[in-house]
Amino acid sequence: xxxxxxxxxxxxxxxxxxxxxxxxxxxxxxxxxxxxxxxxxxxxxxxxxxxxxxxxxxxxxxxxxxxxxxxxxxxxxxxxxxxxxxxxxxxxxxxxxxxxxxxxxxxxxxxxxxxxxxxxxxxxxxxxxxxxxxxxxxxxxxxxxxxxxxxxxxxxxxxxxxxxxxxxxxxxxxxxxxxxxxxxxxxxxxxxxxxxxxxxxxxxxxxxxxxxxxxxxxxxxxxxxxxxxxxxxxxxxxxxxxxxxxxxxxxxxxxxxxxxxxxxxxxxxxxxxxxxxxxxxxxxxxxxxxxxxxxxxxxxxxxxxxxxxxxxxxxxxxxxxxxxxxxxxxxxxxxxxxxxxxxxxxxxxxxxxxxxxxxxxxxxxxxxxxxxxxxxxxxxxxxxxxxxxxxxxxxxxxxxxxxxxxxxxxxxxxxxxxxxxxxxxxxxxxxxxxxxxxxxxxxxxxxxxxxxxxxxxxxxxxxxxxxxxxxxxxxxxxxxxxxxxxxxxxxxxxxxxxxxxxxxxxxxxxxxxxxxxxxxxxxxxxxxxxxxxxxxxxxxxxxxxxxxxxxxxxxxxxxxxxxxxxxxxxxxxxxxxxxxxxxxxxxxxxxxxxxx
Length: 596
Hints:
This protein is of the alpha/beta class and 596 residues long. Strand 30 and strand 31 (580-581) form a beta hairpin. The longest helix is centred in the middle third of the chain and has 18 residues, at 302-319. The radius of gyration is 27 Å and the shape is globular. Keywords: Hydrolase, Nucleotide-binding, Signal.
C-alpha cells in the first residue's frame, strides 16, 4: 500500500474512532446561599463597609469565570431577601436581590426558610419577578397542589442537567404560632427527590440537588439534612447545600459530592462535572469535584454597584436616623475578658430594654424571653440611631407573641437555655460555653424578664435553674405563665426533638397581628418605645434579674487569668480557627503554666 494512502486511512480511522478521540465535556455549576441581603459589601447595622462578601463581589467572580466558560450554570439555595435591612424593600415592585439575580442570569433559585418571614404576598412577588426558575419541590398547597416547580432541566454544551430544588421541612415548625404559611404544607424532601429522579432520569445526563438544608439533620430529625437525602438517592451527582451557615468545600456521602457556600456572600461554591460521549452518542459522567471560592476583599462589580446605588443610599439614610438619647450608663458593659461576651454572663441594660418594650406593647405577658444573636452587642451613652437597634437585635422578623403555658413548661425552656453553658469544675477560673451551642447559627441562650433566677453551673444540664421567682414568690409547676417571645424560637422548642416537643400553646397575643407585620417587630416597637413612649430619652439601667453562679476559685486568680487573656499572653479555648471563643474553661493549671 502507498505510504500516503496508508497514513490517510489510519488518520481517518483515528479521527472517527470515539474510543480514541472520545468527546469530553466539562460542565460547571456555581452556587450561592444564605446571602441575607448582602447585595453590596456594606453592613447597614453599623453603616460601614464589610468586604468579607456580598452578591456584587460574587458577580465579579462569576464574570471572571464566564470569560473562561460562558455556559456556566448559576443557582442559589435560599435566604436571600431577609437580613442586613433588605426587608426595607419587601413591598417594592422588585427586591434588590432579585434585580441582582436577574442581572447575573441565575438559572434557579430555591426558597429558604426566611423567604417566608414576610408572608406569601411578598414571597409570591419575589418569585414572579425572578427571571430564572424558582424551585421548591417539597412545598404544597393543602398537601396536594405544588407551590412551585420541583425541578428544571438546563442544557449546556449538549449536556442536560436536572436541577432539583428542596427546602428544609422545618419551616412549618419555625412558623408555629403564626399564620404566614397559610395553606402551605411541607413534605419529606428525600421522598420528593426520589420521585423527581424517577421522572427525569431518562431525560438528563446528570442530576444535582439545590437544597436549603445543611448536611446534618436538624435536632436529629430524619431527612432534614442533605446527608440523608444523599444516602437515599445515590443517583444524584452533587448537592449545593445551605441553611447552616458553614463553608463546605467538598463532602462525599454515598458517592454524592456536597458543597455549601457559607453565608452572606462570603463564598461561592463550584461543582465540576466531566462527561464522556460514547459511540452511541450518550454522555456519561466520568468524574466530578467541588470546592469554594473565598470572596473576602474581592472587588465589587461596578455594574452591580450602579444597580444597587439607590437602595444603598436609602438604607444609609435610614440607618443614621436618630431616634433618641441614652443617658446615664452604657447598656452593655465592656467585656471583663476579651472573647467572653459580658451580655451572655450578666443581665444587661440592653436585654432589660427589649424586655421593657415587650411588657409595654404586649401587656398580656408576665414573662418576656429575648436572645441576642449578636455576640458583641454595644449601645453606649449618646445618640441612639436606627442602626443601633438593628445591630443589637439582628432578627428583623422577630416579634412578641404571648403564649399561655405552665410554670413547668417555663422551667423546661429555661433549663434548655441554661444548657448553653458548660458545667463548672472545682479548678475553673472562667465560665465557658458548650461548643455545639456556641457554634450554632443563632444564639441559643435566652434571657428572661419578669422573673428572677440563678443559673447554677455546678449542676448538670437540666438541673441548673435555681431560686426561680415571680414577684418574690417561687414559681410552681401548675402556675399559669403568659410568656412573650418570638414565634420562630417557639417553633424550635416545640418541633420534633425540641425541649417542648409536641406542645401546642394558646396564643394570647401577636404583636405583628396587632400592630402590623413590620410595625409589630421587636426592632420597630423598640424604636417606637424610645421615640414616642420615652419621648426620646432612655436612662441606662440593669435590672439584675438573673446571674450565673458556680465558680469557687479565688477572685484574685480569676482577675489574674483575665489579665493574661487581655494582654494576649494566653488564648481562650476556641473552635473553627478561633471563630467561636470560650468553648472550654481556663483553669488554675492554665494560670500556673503562664505565671512561672
